[in-house]
Amino acid sequence: MTGTGDYSGQRLAHLEALAARLPEHGLSARLLGTDDPVLSVWHPGTGRQTIVFATPAAEGWMFLWAPGGQESADDPGRAAELIGRTLSRHP
User: Fold this and answer.
1) Of 1, 22, 62, 86, which residue is 20 to 30 A from 70 by alpha carbon distance?
2) What is the mean pLDDT of the chain?
């Protein structure tokens, strides 16, 4: 059985991998929290922002963000691209 600390460590590793790819798409980010970290992401040009969660799923880990975004945590580059598209749109 995997303990809570194991999940927190895995979650943090996935979020850090995503955070490293976000600047390539003109985005800024900051990790929030310790036991159950999340990633606050914003687009400096549009002012739009979202919170990204990393969560265990049936086949590994997933990134989830509003509105309705999701991508496998196995591909942080693709997730960064999709988040960038979402936050680049003007409301």
Assistant:
1) 1
2) 92
